[in-house]
Amino acid sequence: MIKRLLIANRGEIAVRVAHTAREMGIEPIGVYAESDAGGFHVARMARAASLGEGSSRETYLSIPRILEAARETGADAIHPGYGFLSESPEFARAVEESGLLWIGPPASAIEQMGDKLAARRRARRSGVPVVPGTDGSETNDAALAKKAAEMGFPIVVKPSAGGGGKGMSVVETAEGLAAALEEGRRVAEDAFGDPRVYLEKLLERPRHVEFQVFGDRQGNVVHLFERECSVQRRHQKIVEETPSCALDSRVRAAMGRAAVEVALGVGYVGAGTVEFLLDERRDFYFLEMNTRLQVEHPITEETLGLDLVRAQIEVAEGATLPADWRAGRLSPRGHAIELRLYAEDPATFLPRTGRVLACEPPSGPGVRVDAGFEEGSTVGLDYDPLLAKLVVSGQDRGSCLSRARRALADWIVLGVSTNAPLLAAVLASKEFASGHYATDLVSRLPALPSSIPSDAAWIAAALAISESKPGAPGAAVAEPWGAATGWRAGG
After folding, report:
1. Cβ of 58: how many Cβ atoms within 10 Å?
2. In what helix (H) or strand (E) does residue 435 lie, and over which residues does it extend?
3. Rounded Cα gap, residues 46 and 29, in angstroms
4. Which pLDDT score, from 0 to 100, does residue 115 have?
5. Residue 463 confidence (pLDDT)
6. Which of 27, 179, 300, 471 could serve as 4's disulfide partner, Cβ 3.0–4.6 Å?
7. 4-103 and 207-444 share one CATH topology?
8. Over the chain, what is the mean pLDDT?
9. Domain 207-444 listed as CATH 1.25.40.80
C-alpha cells in the first residue's frame, strides 16, 4: 500500500491529487523548480522537493531529477497529473524500473495511443470509425498534396505526436498546404521532438465528445459516460459539460462501446479518455485517446459522485473495479459544467502575466473551484496559463447554467487579465443555452474588446475590495463582526 505519493506536477492538478492522497492517509509529496518555489501547490503538500534551477525541460520534464526527488523523499509511488510527463512512456517505464508504483496506464498503452497515426490504426482494427485522412505512408509534400486533393479541401494538418492543438492548422485551399506542412513540422519538432504530420478531412461544424474510460489490472474496462468539449479556442477546450445535449440513448451506447473497445485493444489500466468528433448526422469518428486524467474530470465526478483520483490510486495498488461499475449500474445524476479560467487576453487568447492583487472565489451549493493560484501569486509565462477551474452542478441543465452564470459573475480576480469575459459570453449566448452548438461557437460570438487595465486601475479595484472586507480599516461597523477590534467570536 502506498504511504508516500510524489506528485510530478504543479498548479491545480497537483493540489487536486494531494487532497485525495490526504483523505486516503497517504502523504502527498510535491516537487518544484527553484523559480517556482513559492508556487501555490508547494505549500499544500506534506513536504516538497526541489528539482533545481532551469526551464521546465530541465525540471518538471526531467525524468532523472524527478526520480531523484522520489528517492530523497522516500516516495512509494508517482502520480503524473496531466501535462508534463503524464503521457511519456519513457517516464512510466523509468518509474516502474526504479521500483516505484506508477499511477497510470502501462507504458505500452501510452506508446500506442500517444502516436496519433498508430492510434488511428488501432481504432480501425477495433472496428471504430476514424476521421478520413492519411495513414502515415504519405511522407513527402507531393504525396500529401495528392491525398489532400482526393479528400477535398478544407483539411487539417496535425502532428502525429501532438496534443492540445499545438501545430494544428486548417488549410482551405491547395495553395496553402505547403506552408502549413512546413509550419506543422517545425512546431511538432519543437513541442514534441517528432516532426511527423498527417492530414485529416475537416468535418463541418462537428461536436467534440469524449468518453471517460477506466480499466483495472484484471482486464476489466468500463466507460463512465461522456463529456461535451465543443467550446474551444485555438483547438483547446475552455468549457465542458455533461451530459451532452447532442447524444440520444442509441448514440451514447454506441460511442461508449467504441470507447471501451479502443481501451481494451491496448490493455488499458487506470483513467483515460477516448475522444470523438460527432457530425450533424450523428455519425461519430475516433479522434484520439488521452492516456491520463483529463483537466475536465471533475464534471464526471460531480454527476456520478466519484473520486477518480482515488480510483486511479486503488487500481494501481491492484484493486478490481467496483462491482457496480462492472455491472453498468452507474447512472449520472443532474448536470455539471466546467469553466477554465486562463490568464490570457479574452479577445486575442494571448497569455498574460501579472501579480494577483485580489482573489475572491465563488461559493454556494453546487459550486466547486479547483485552483492553482491565490492572492499574491505571480503569473508568468513559464507554464500553462490555466489558473483554476470553476465546476458547477445542478439538478438539470437549466439550473446548472444559471448557477454557472452567477458563480462566474461572483468570481473576482484582479491584477492579471483573464478569459472571464469570454466565458461569460459563452454562457450568455443563445446558441450555447439552446444546447445546439459546435466547435465553432467561440468564433461565432460577438467580438470582445482587447483591453488591459492599467496598474493603477488594478490597485484601486483591489483596495476597494480590501476596504469592503470585514475587519478592514474603514469598513462599515454596522455589525460586530465588521469591527477590527473589540469583538471575539465565542468558543
Report:
1. 13
2. none
3. 6
4. 87
5. 75
6. 27
7. no
8. 92
9. no
Domain 4-103 has what CATH class?
A: alpha beta
* Residues ≥6 apart with Cβ < 8 Å to 129: 123, 283, 284, 285, 286
pLDDT of residue 58: 96
Write the DSSP assignment of 387-430 as a string of letters: EEEEEEEESSHHHHHHHHHHHHHH-EEESS--SHHHHHHHHH-H
**In the chain, what percentage of residues exceed pLDDT 70?**
93
Question: What is the H or E stretch that residue 457 is in?
Answer: helix 455-468
Q: Residue 266 has what pLDDT?
A: 95
In this prediction, residue 279 carries a pLDDT of 94
Q: Could you identify the residue written with the cell 498534396?
A: 145
Domain ranges of the chain: 4-103, 132-201, 207-444
DSSP assignment letter at 36: G
Q: CB–CB of 216/272 below 8 Å?
A: no
Label residue 230 exposed, middle or buried (CB < 10 Å: 0-12, 13-18, 19+).
Answer: buried
* Ramachandran angles phi, psi of 40, nearest 5°: -55, -40
292 band by pLDDT with thresholds 50, 70 and 90: very high
Residue with cell 447512472: 331
Q: Which residues contact 96 (CB under 8 A, 6 or more apart)?
A: 102, 107
Assigned C-alpha cell, 183: 509550419
- Angstrom CA distances, 271 to 210, 308, 311, 356, 361, stand at 13, 8, 8, 33, 29
Q: What is the pLDDT of residue 470?
A: 61
Which tens digits make up the pLDDT trace of 454-479?
766 777 777 777 776 665 544 443 33
CATH fourth-level superfamily of 132-201: ATP-grasp fold, A domain (3.30.1490.20)
* First and final C-alpha spacing in the chain: 40
- pLDDT, tens digit, 9 for 90 and up, residues 206-262: 999 999 999 999 999 999 999 999 999 988 999 999 999 999 999 999 999 999 999
* C-alpha of 73 from chain center: 28
